[in-house]
């Protein structure tokens, strides 16, 4: 029974870790709800009335979610500075409450300063957010000079409660977050292997569904790898340890993605294109006739299950002989003589399983230290020696790239501050026309749609999502207000539930978050005895007005069009892609070592920024379907290029430590065309009138003079060639949707 209980708890833990990497959403929700509950408890014991309770609850929420620094010391400083900012904000709001023109003018200045403060990093962003939100809550509860002492006391209680929850009850240190992210990576890697198993067994009519699960699992694994990358510097003891973890995470991600491609190829009529894994909605390739042979299929299914077990139990402290036997068998597939009799495509899958098992072994050593080697087979011992040699070669070098800083109105924070100030001024005027008492809802919406957005299109999409969530939230608020009636503490309990749901859902869906916020506000209005259907309808009207004011300001004041923004980010992605490709090929050609994994992660981050910026173009409500499909196709092609570039970088880093891998000076010349084509496309994106053309010609393998009689996988150069050829094909394919001329092959 105990063993069964432990297994159930382990499965539950893995599910939670995979669905919420690092438990970041759960931690944020619990910390915020705890701070609010503690504030309400203290204020109720002090005999505060309901207006002060509501003010304290909102202040506790703001003090908790505004702070984003990773180190606890920096968080403490920001929280300490946030209290006087909050006290000053609530005091000014109370004093200016009866002076409409002066109060509105000050609110606009405060909004400008709060947004401009983002240029000073996380602390500036947090203090600006606290100043704005506390001024807003003062308007919400109707702060006056007479109630100012009580409000200041509520602010102090709220900040102390937030500090207690943050530093004592629900602490989140960088080391702890990184540890939980590692568990999430393992859980998502296991989920991806499960998706690969489903792909193996899927009948023809369910291949599209199985491919979608494989595609989603690959994307989620990559997302977690990027999150780990963001925590490495603060969460590891030194730079060498950070680079080691970075290397092993990259190895595991690449091996898992490659295994999925090999499995897809084995099940279909032709070699699967990497684009299939990255283009949402792309149909599955045609299955190659009847199912694979029973014996080979059964063996493959057994070994994928074994790999799944190996992933789940890596890092669990389980070092039994059964696990060692499984590991030895899977690592044995790295040797040709251990491959089972099967077709060439199926043997490729077994090789991929061997490489995945090696990446899991490397990940376990990097994260948990040396392991028991008494049950190692020769294949496992050799894999350990390779990993040890790689670990010894990793150093802590690397220099920060100097970023060109924009100045004046070109600086994003300055531009956004001006836009928000103009939009808020419009929202104040329009909001006053709708309601002299609730006008601040329009200002809040205008403020919010500018947060984490960089173009007019992004602001439009965010405004639409907020309005949609608000409409449904009003309906929910009406129902909840009717159920609660005059039961104050029942309403507060539901408020806490909705706040937790708001924070837990925020990274997943902005519409859902807006829904929970609006439903919560319906309960708060009930507590303040200002609830009515008219008030909630007014909430929708003010939200629509605020979103419209934000869009107008973004479109007319220092506008950044979506096309311009995406082109800038596309140019950055292409620049990073050229850097990674050139550096990796240079090292594979015998050139000096470079910080390849750092360059690869810079490419991944640039691609993530581009993916976010194209959301207005790919949103389901976008009327321009051709443009939407083109944007999706371009991003998918870039993800394909990034996969091949990452693999080339990972292979290049093996050169110093693997005697079986030798540099080939011919690679530099053969890959030169690909790098030139990437640069050509980047030039054309920056200037559509540029006359450069993308080159085409013989395959890279023929340029290299590859011997057709060389056995597959007989040399590492063969694998490098395949990735270079796929990269070259993807880059040429990228030229067409971007309107870059493609030169005809020469003679």
From TrEMBL:
Keywords: Cell membrane, Membrane, Transmembrane, Transmembrane helix. The keyword Protein biosynthesis does not apply. The chain crosses the membrane at residues 21-44, 50-67, 74-94, 100-117, 124-143, 440-460, 467-483, 489-506, 513-531, 543-560. Residues 387-405 have a biased composition (Acidic residues). One of its GO terms (cellular component) is plasma membrane. Residues 427-552 form the Integral membrane bound transporter domain. It is a multi-pass membrane protein. The keyword Membrane applies. Its main location: membrane. Residues 367-412 are annotated as: Disordered. It comes from the Bacteria. Pfam families: FUSC_2. Belongs to the YccS/YhfK family. This is Integral membrane bound transporter domain-containing protein.
